[in-house]
Amino acid sequence: MKRYATVVCAAIILGTLSCAGPGERAAEESSSSQGVGQSMAEVIEKINSASAYEVPDLALRSDRNYARTAQDVEPFRHVKPYKEHFLLQMEYTGPGRAIPEPEDVETVKIGFIGPIMSTVSVATGGQSHEEVLGKKMLQGARLAVEEANAVGGYLKRNIPFELVVKNDNGLWGASGNEIVTMAYKDKVWAILGTIDGANSHIAIRVALKAEIAMLNSGDTDPTFVETNIPWVFRCISDDRQQGYLLIDYLYRKLKFKRVGVVRASNRYGRFGVREILDGSRRLGNPIPLEMAYNLGTDDFSLQLERLKNENLEAIIHWGDAREGALVLNQMRAMGMKQPYFACDRCISDEFIEIAGDNAKGVICTSPWNPKSKNEKLGKFREAFTKRYGEEPETFAAHAYDGMNMLIWAIQVAGLNRAKIRDVLAHRQEPWNGVTGKIVLNATLDDVGDVYLAKRENGTWAFHSREDLKIPRGYVPRRDRANRPVANARPAEPPK
C-alpha cells in the first residue's frame, strides 16, 4: 500500500503533465513542472515506508564550508574550533508523517504573511516602512497560486489552492499570533513570509512549535537560518553572500583601503552590514566610521559631516531606497565625490526618482539578475506585467519562486505538513526559478549567485563575479574543525 502511494504521487505529477492538452501544458512552467526525479522518488518511498514510530532514513545535506566563506574572512580562522556549526543539515525526528490526508478539504490553503498594511510599531522604529515591498511580495505569490489553479490546482484531488493572507504589522507578538491563526484556525499546509528580520525570527519559532514549513523570500538577515529550525527555508540570497561579493570588489578588485558606512538604525541596517564590517577588518581594512540614522530622517548632515572628515575612498549605504537616495543627494551637495555603494533595496524606481542624475555610477548588491536570459523569467515578466500592469521586482520574483516551491512540495508530498517539509528539505537538485538557480545549503539557505548592479546609461546593468573578474579568497574544501591549526598567514589555495 505504501509503495502504491509513492507510485500514484509520481504518476500524478509526471503523468498529468505529459498527457495534458495545449492549455494545460502551461503547467510545465509552473511549480509542478519540476517533477519527481529519481532522487525525490526515493525520498518519497522512504517517507511512506516508515511507520508512525520511525524516522525515515533520509540523507542529510553536508557542507565542507559554511556559506562559501573565504578563509581569510572566517572568524577565528587562526585557531582550531572544538565544533563548527551549520555544516550538517538539521534532522526532523518528530511525528506527523503518518497522519493521513484529510478527505473533507475543499481548497488547499497556503499561508502568506508580509507587510501589506501600514501600521505604527516601536519594534520597527515607528511608522512602518516596508509595505511597498510586502505588496510586491504578495503580487508574486498570488500570481503563482493563480497559475497553479489555472492548470488544475492540487492535481491529486483537482481542487484549487487558496492563499490565506495575513499582515505583518511589525509587532513581534502579533506576527507570532498570525502564524498560530494560520496553522490552527485557517489550517494552512505551509507558509510564505516575511520581510522584517525581527518578525521573521519570531514567526519561525512559532512555526517550529506548530510544526509547519515556513519558506522566506524577503528577509536577507544572515542569522535567519542560523536558528537550526528544521522547518525553515529561504529562497533569496542573504546579506552575507551579497556582502562577501561587495567587499571582494572593494578590496580585492579596486584595492580600496578606507571605506565608510551609513545605515538605517534598525535590524535590517545593523545586520545587513555586519559581514561587511567583519570582512573589512579581517582583510586588513577596518571600517573607519559607521554612522546610523533613524527611519524617516530627511537631514543627514550630522552623519555626512563626520564621514566627510574621515578621508574616505568610498561610501556604503544600507537601508531603504528613500533614505539611500537622500543620503546620496546630500553627499553630492556637500562636495563628497566618493563612489557610492548600496544594498539591493536601492535598485528601485523610488531611488531613481529621488536621486535623479546623482544615481549615475551607483553600484548596488543584488540577490539576482532581473535581466537574465532565463526563459522562465521572460514568461514570468510577461505574465506579471499583464496581471498587474507593471514590471516585477526583487520581492515579487522571489515570492513567485517561493510560492511555486511550496506548491510543488504539496503536489509531491500530499496534504501532510511533515512530508511537505521533507520533500523541500531533501530535494537534491537546485530549484530552477525565475530568479535563477536556487541552491540550498545545509541550513536550507539559498547560496546561489549574487550580483552587482551599476547604474549606467539610464538603466541598471547587472554583473556577476565572473563578469567583473572579481577575485575571491581561498574557500577551503574541508571544515575548519578537521584541519590543523591555522598559522598567522592564510593558507594558499592548492595549485
3D structure, described in words:
- This protein has 495 residues and is α/β, with parallel strands linked by helices.
- The chain contains 15 helices and 16 strands.
- Strands 9-8-10-11-12-15-16 form a seven-stranded mixed sheet, with helices on both faces. The protein has a five-stranded parallel sheet with strand order 4-1-5-6-7, sandwiched between helices.
- Helix 4 runs parallel beside helix 5 (197-210).
- The chain is globular and about 70 Å long.
Describe this structure in a few short sentences.
This protein is α/β, with parallel strands linked by helices and 495 residues long. It is built from 15 helices and 16 strands.
Topology of helices and strands:
Elements lengths: L1 H17 L19 H12 L58 E7 L5 E2 L4 E2 L3 H20 L10 E7 L4 H15 L4 E3 L3 H14 L3 E3 L15 E3 L4 H15 L5 E6 L2 H6 L1 H9 L7 E4 L7 H8 L5 E5 L2 H13 L6 E3 L6 H7 L7 E4 L8 H14 L5 H20 L3 H9 L5 E3 L2 E3 L12 E6 L2 E5 L1 H4 L27
Parallel strand pairs: 1-4, 1-5, 5-6, 6-7, 8-9, 8-10, 10-11, 11-12
Antiparallel strand pairs: 2-3, 12-15, 13-14, 15-16
How does the overall form come out from the CA principal axes? globular
Strand order of the largest sheet: 9-8-10-11-12-15-16
- How much helical structure, as a percent, in the residues? 25-40%
Mean pLDDT reading: 89
Number of helices: 15
Q: How many strands?
A: 16
Poorly predicted segments: 1-32
Largest β sheet strand count, sense and barrel closure? 7 strands, mixed
The fraction of residues assigned to DSSP E strands is: 5-15%
Using only CA atoms, what is the Rg?
Answer: 23 Å
Distance between the ends:
54 Å
Structural class: alpha/beta
